[in-house]
Amino acid sequence: MIPSKFTYSMIKPAFGSCYDLIKYKWFSKLQFKSLRIKSNLFDEYYKDTCAIRKSDMIAFLQENSVYSLKDGIGECEATVQIYVGEKENQSMKKSAKIIHEKLQDSFIKVLPNMFHGEFSINHADDYMRKLLEIVK
């Protein structure tokens, strides 16, 4: 929720110059380790990452770097639950807070000792239980 024109402008040259490294397992293992995903998921991560085209990856990363909430988000009438890891970077924590402030009927939960994406990936059973609880 905090757009960064600088990050946007750096993605294409930085990622474009190192994209081919993702095909090397040693490099993918370094990336994978930085994401703090359970080690038994590496093979799927590697396969999926190698299947993403360079242009798609750059477009995805650039769009993420400039995304902002639409003005009409405050009119949302849904009950929204927002989860953010305690160990996520400050930008993610601020983004979660912004969403929470913009949505009247929202709930925010800081997940202790968790990094970005860890709830849905490393704690998939808990995540699914929460989703099923919400849907009911």
* Mean residue pLDDT: 94
Strand content: 5-15%
What strand line-up does the widest sheet have? 1-2
Q: Identify the overall geometry.
A: globular
Q: DSSP helix count? A: 7
Please state the oligomeric state of the protein chains shown.
Answer: single chain
- The sequence of SSEs as H and E is HHHHEHEHH
- Approximately how much helix is present in the residues? 55-70%
Could you list some keywords that capture this structure?
single chain; mainly alpha; two-stranded parallel sheet; 57% helix
In brief, what are we looking at here?
The chain is mainly alpha-helical and 136 residues long. The chain has helices at 5-18, 25-35, 42-51, 54-66, 90-102, 118-122, 124-135; strands spanning 80-85, 106-111. It is 57% helix and 9% strand.
Give structural notes.
It is built from seven helices and two strands; from the N terminus they run ααααβαβαα. By secondary structure, it is mostly helical. It is globular, with a radius of gyration of 17 Å.
Topology, element by element:
Layout: H1 5-18, H2 25-35, H3 42-51, H4 54-66, E1 80-85, H5 90-102, E2 106-111, H6 118-122, H7 124-135
Parallel strand pairs: 1-2
Helix pairs in contact: 1-4, 2-3
